[in-house]
Amino acid sequence: xxxxxxxxxxxxxxxxxxxxxxxxxxxxxxxxxxxxxxxxxxxxxxxxxxxxxxxxxxxxxxxxxxxxxxxxxxxxxxxxxxxxxxxxxxxxxxxxxxxxxxxxxxxxxxxxxxxxxxxxxxxxxxxxxxxxxxxxxxxxxxxxxxxxxxxxxxxxxxxxxxxxxxxxxxxxxxxxxxxxxxxxxxxxxxxxxxxxxxxxxxxxxxxxxxxxxxxxxxxxxxxxxxxxxxxxxxxxxxxxxxxxxxxxxxxxxxxxxxxxxxxxxxxxxxxxxxxxxxxxxxxxxxxxxxxxxxxxxxxxxxxxxxxxxxxxxxxxxxxxxxxxxxxxxxxxxxxxxxxxxxxxxxxxxx
Amino acid sequence: xxxxxxxxxxxxxxxxxxxxxxxxxxxxxxxxxxxxxxxxxxxxxxxxxxxxxxxxxxxxxxxxxxxxxxxxxxxxxxxxxxxxxxxxxxxxxxxxxxxxxxxxxxxxxxxxxxxxxxxxxxxxxxxxxxxxxxxxxxxxxxxxxxxxxxxxxxxxxxxxxxxxxxxxxxxxxxxxxxxxxxxxxxxxxxxxxxxxxxxxxxxxxxxxxxxxxxxxxxxxxxxxxxxxxxxxxxxxxxxxxxxxxxxxxxxxxxxxxxxxxxxxxxxxxxxxxxxxxxxxxxxxxxxxxxxxxxxxxxxxxxxxxxxxxxxxxxxxxxxxxxxxxxxxxxxxxxxxxxxxxxxxxxxxxxxxxxxxxxxxxxxxxxxxxxxxx
Amino acid sequence: xxxxxxxxxxxxxxxxxxxxxxxxxxxxxxxxxxxxxxxxxxxxxxxxxxxxxxxxxxxxxxxxxxxxxxxxxxxxxxxxxxxxxxxxxxxxxxxxxxxxxxxxxxxxxxxxxxxxxxxxxxxxxxxxxxxxxxxxxxxxxxxxxxxxxxxxxxxxxxxxxxxxxxxxxxxxxxxxxxxxxxxxxxxxxxxxxxxxxxxxxxxxxxxxxxxxxxxxxxxxxxxxxxxxxxxxxxxxxxxxxxxxxxxxxxxxxxxxxxxxxxxxxxxxxxxxxxxxxxxxxxxxxxxxxxxxxxxxxxxxxxxxxxxxxxxxxxxxxxxxxxxxxxxxxxxxxxxxxxxxxxxxxxxxxxxxxxxxxxxxxxxxxxxxxxxx
Lengths: 350, 373, 372
Hints:
heterotrimer; A: mainly alpha; two-stranded antiparallel ribbon; 14 helices; B: eight-stranded mixed beta sheet
């Protein structure tokens, strides 16, 4: 077994442990709520959600039993695929998630590459021209962006572009197209290949839907990018400055290499290493940051669903979202660590 | 300047503009390196040896700035002042006419690229034509003289800056060129006595021991057959047995490649073993330059004498030079050694002694030997 | 030695540190962005300190943070009114004075940021230092625990906590004693091994005995909504500090001077206080400064979602949340713009001040980049 494989296996075990820990912790928090609310965690479909049934559910599933008994029972149910019933969205939690993740994904799909590439480029330029004009501009712009409340920025953009200029409506798609797709699904003229409107539009040979979906994504993506690109620029800048101070840069210059080669081939490659790991965590963290943005733009993704659920003490939904979020976080941690070991040859020996 | 001199540093002045003040690191340094010799540049930490060597290649880092003097390089292109060269001439000179090796070899190698990557890099910068020609000939011999690869190489040879070829560089196969370069890399690794050079070529710097890494640095410096090699304390961080091997290697380089070597060190033992001539530096000046036997046998400058007397031995015991090196910020007037010199005169406090040749091939900067007119 | 001599000694020994601080302050003064940040923070601090003068609470009010309503303007119209001489920034819906809210909101913002960061810092320092310094199983367990909390979606968890927390928490005093005993034994771990076990056992025994007497005493702690928000954000945020601090302590722990200190017989506690913490304080300070801004934004986000401070509490996020309803229709936008823009500008500027300062501190305190 190579050291890399052993490393991955060890990390996988830790991953499982952490996810288990998350479930325990959040289950413990739910125990602060009365049994009537917790009953929804065990319901499978709409029939069971009627008032009379709830008391029976409480008795059946022994919601007054000790903690570990309930936990065990609940975990076995989760492994069977039942995450409970979300009464704010009148669906099972699993259905709610599978219906909504596509909208969140649309935003992340555009925002992440923009943040990463723009952040890297501006960070490198800031480092090369340290204390120059571009450095100061980037710094100021990124600090302002980082200081803006996301909901405030979102509301400003909405009131300007949607309220005053009427360029775009709030939500993932224009209402006309939403009905169009709904009709298309029921009459089998529309196949939801991916569920993501941007792709489905092209795949169903309706490019105007793709364009419309993109247009609706622009504002939320702008908000996310404006706020998060700051972090990447700063980290890239300081990483690049550190790399440029290293001894091997003198060697590179002493070999007669041109300035561009020294900067982009030698320094930047080393500077990208910590940035790569940060980017991975940033993308994973975008999920959390979307809660506010999705709510402001009524995007109907996981974030806004979870926010509404938390506000209405819809425990199964919050539980499901927390587990999903933790799983994504831990898996991206793992991917980032593997990537790090792959990029930096020094780590491979450990 | 005689024809046999390869590098001549004349009256070099370098300042460092730091927060604490202006550090006058070099105050009129005069060194000349002759063809085929090993010149030892000796001095304490802070005497300016490294700054001098970096200035020869115009690599002084900020906040340092070269404020005066000249560095004449006698290269194939004729006699040039390095300090006046433009960027592209400098780049052509570095790695090809003059090369440098450094003190902490693993820090001076890029950790994310293999040994082969880094050595072939310098080869491709300076010897690309040669490799292209060889590749074309090789393809001709293999009967592939009319292939796409060959025609691309030929086009590059004819017009190295052609935009179309440079854009297409990513797409056509460069296997033959790569093979040729790899062969050369292995050859140069062998010449620095690295065992199993093919395997080492694929290794990363952190996988190498200190001695191996230093050999790799030397190989990289020699890759384009430079006339001058500057070695900045290459064995200081290595243990003694490895040090002996590297020193032996340097001797072989001088003998087989006929390179001129500027060897910087603070270890007088190394100087005695290795160097032909010695230049002694103190606080930003060269105070004495002579043949190695003269320096050890009949040193003239009081500092050189004190330095030799401070070498610990059973008879002498431990004898140090009283006082400390003066600060280079707002430096004292006159000779910078005057506060620690037992022979200091009045004129030493006021005016800096000129660097004069007082015997054949033996120059000193000290009023004991004249210069007070 | 006399007191004067001891003072002289202290002054001499601190001289290099003073010199470093002087250099640091000079760098801060020279950096325009750092100065801007500092000016902004001082401006808000003055604003907050002078709040009773600038926006005096109406006569007879118990809680200065409750925004006064102007009942003279037509109570039947819930619409916000634009700025007038009487209400400098205008009023929000329900006729709350915007100017009053913004001024007192400054104090709320400071309170939010400093409290959360302060507590998170203390907890993070304790847990992170102990985990990093002692290593081994303790480190693994503590780090897994913090990893679990970090893996949570922070905002959602904070929301759930705010809702789940009861408004009244009965605190059993004997529980308090147990907590104090636990903390004490933690600290005692860091004394000399020969002494620590004995002292720890003694302390725990005494405290357990005392706690029996206090068992029946229960004290009700009332939490305002803002308090719940602060607690939730702290509970969600402290692992972040723990990780950073642990990283820093790990770095310092392997330095030569720590080993030298241990070889000359210092206690663990002594080493931590004299060597570890002073060398790790700078990066932690930077993280803390930058975090104050983030926390104020998070609290505002929670207010925006409706679970922040009470409806008439002076809190910037709260005000913006109120103004949201008036933005949806275009014709309502312009007359009501002030209710939305002014508090937003307050928040952004406040957070920007801290971010500028933290960013500049990061540049100033970076040892590799300093002396250029």
